[in-house]
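User: two proteins, same treatment. go.

Assistant:
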Amino acid sequence: MIFDMTRGARMALAALAAACLLHGAPAQAQGQPFAPAATINGMAITNWQVTQRARFLALLNAPNADLQSVRDLLVDETLQVQTARAAGIVVTPEELDAGMVEFISRGSLEPEQFIAALEARGVAAETYRDFVRNGLYWRGLVQQRFGPRARPSEAEIERTLARGPNSVRVLMSEIAIPQTPETRDEVRALAERLSNSISGPVAFQQAARQYSRSASRGRGGRIDWVPLSQLPPPLVSQVLALAPGEVSDPVDLGAFIGLYMLRDLDESGTATQEALAIDYAEYLIPGGRSPEALAEAARIRARVDVCDDLYGVAKGQPEGVLTRSVAQVSDLPGDLRTELAKLDEGEETTLLSSGGNLRFVMMCGRVVEPPEGAFDAVGQQLLNQRLESYAQGYLDELRADAIITYE
C-alpha cells in the first residue's frame, strides 16, 4: 500500500476507464480456487485471492498484474498485516470506510459505485476492501515505527524547495582571470586589452582557453542559461547593455576580473519562481592556486557528489576549514554570487580567498519563495519518501525471517 493516497486516487480514475475497455482478465490460477497458493508463518493465501487481486490490478492498469507477481505481493502483505497486528495496530471499520473513500476521492464516485463497477468485471468487493485494509495496517505500523525519525527538518524542506530560475535568463560566455592585491593592476590591464581586441565567438573562445581559470575554460568559456536575478548588479548592467556577440568591459568581482560575451537573452517568462537564497558549502585548501592546491581540489572533486560528502573530506580537519551556509542572494559577494549562479546542485568551482587559500565551493541548492502550501506539501513528500525507504528495508527483514512455503 502506498503512503500517498492521491496516487491511489489517480489509479482509481484509471480503473474506471479500464473497466469500460477491458475485454479479458488474468487466467485462473492453477489448481483448486480455494487451495493455498502460499503459506506465510502458518497463514495461507489462496489461488482465488491471487486471481482476484490480479484482476483488480489489471483493471487499475497497474504494473506486475501477472499471477506470480501478485502472489509475491500478497505474501508481502500477509507479512505486513501479521507484524502490524503483533505490534498492536488496529484498523477500525470507520477507518476502513474512510480509507476506501480516500482511495477513490478524485473519481467522483461513492465506494458502492466503485465496488459495483468492479463486480461487473468479476472482482469481489472483499478484494477491494482487503487491498485498502492491508495498506492501512502497514501504513500504521511504518508510521508508528519510523515516523519520528523520518520527519524532515525545516532546513531540509527549504533545500528541497530550491527550484526554478527567474523569468529572464541570459546565455553567456566568460573569461575569469584571478587577481590578488599584488596582481590587480596587471590583471586589469590584461582584461582591458582583451575587451578591446576580442571580436567574435571564435576569438573569445580562444582567449578563454588561454587566460580564464573558470571551470568553463575547457568549453571556451561557454556557460549555460543563468537567471539574471542571480548575477551581481555590476554584471547585470553590463550584460543588459550588450547585443548578442558583443563583449563586456572588464567587471571587477573581487577574486577575479571577468569578461562576458552575450550569446542570447530569454524573456519568455516560462519560469516564475525566483531564488531568494543560496545553500552552499566552502572547503579551504592552503596554497592558493599552486599545483599542489589545484591537485588537492581535483582529488576532492573526484570524491564528492553532493555537499554532505564534504563532511567526510573535512573529518579531522581544524574548525572552519569547511563551512555550510544559506545566504540571501543579495548578500553574497560579487565573485561568489556570479560563480554560484552558474552552478547546478552538486556542481563546484574554485576561488581564491583573501587569505591566500583556494576555496572549493559547492552548490547545495537554491531556496525559492514557495507558492502557498508548498512548504507543507514538500515536507509531506519528503516524509513519504523516507517512510517508503524505511518500510522497504523493514519488509526485507521480515521476509528473511519468515517461514514461507509455496504450493
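Protein 2:
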Amino acid sequence: MTRKWLVIGVGLMFTFPILLLTVKSFAFDWSWGELWPSSFQLANWQTIFRDANIRQALLLTISIGFVVVALNLLIGIPAAKALAFTQFRGKALIDVLMLLPLFIPTLAVVMGLQLTMIRLQLTNSWYGVVLVHLIPTVPYTIRILRSGYERIGVKWQEQAQVLGATGRQALFTVELPLLMPSIRAAMYLTLVISFSQYVLTAIIGGGTVVTLAMLYFPYFSSANEGILAAFSILFALIPFLCLALLEGVVRLFMPVLKR
C-alpha cells in the first residue's frame, strides 16, 4: 500500500505542473485565489502561431535538430561499435577525451571555438550552429550506443555471418534492430539537448540563427502568463513529436534497407 501511494505521489509530482500549464494556456481571466478559470479560449495559442518569428524559429529548430541527430548517428554508431568491441592503444585516452565536453564549461569551449569558426566562415549560419551542437551531444550518443553494443554483444552478428549474411544484411537485419532501444534514447536526448541550446546558438549563430530557445527568454519576461504557458507546452512537446516522426521514418525505410 505504501509503495502504491509513493508511485501515485511521484506521478502527481511530475504530471501536475504539466496539467497546470495546459489549463493555464487555455484559461481566460484566471485571477489569483480562484480555484478554476472562469472560461477557456484559444487566444494564447493563436497569438503564438500568428507570430511569424515563432513559425520560422520552429522550422529552423526542427531542421537543425534533425541534422544534428543524423550526424550523431553517423558518428556515434561506428565509434561506439569500435569502442565496444575493439582493443587498441590509446582507447582509455579517447574515453577521457570524450568526457571533456561534458565537464568543461560550455561557455569556455564555445568562446575559444568561435575564433576558429570565424576564420572558417562558419559563424552566423545554421550549419555552424549544427556543428557546434555536436559538442554537447556526440559524447552522450557514443556512450549510450556503446552501452547498447556491449549489451547485445557480438554473438548475434557472428551467427548472422555463419548463416551467410553479408555485412550490410547483418547490420540492417540484426545489429540495428537490436540496437534500436539505445538509438531511440540517443535520438531523444540529442533532440532535447539541441533544442535547448541557447548560449551555443547565440554565440555561433550571432543572432542571425534564431531558434525557439532564443525566443523563450523574451516570452518568459512577458506579462501574459497564458502565452508563456502555451509557449512552454509547445517547447516541451516538440521533442516528442519529432521523435515520433523519426520513429516513423525508421520504420518506413528499415525494410527497404534490409534488402
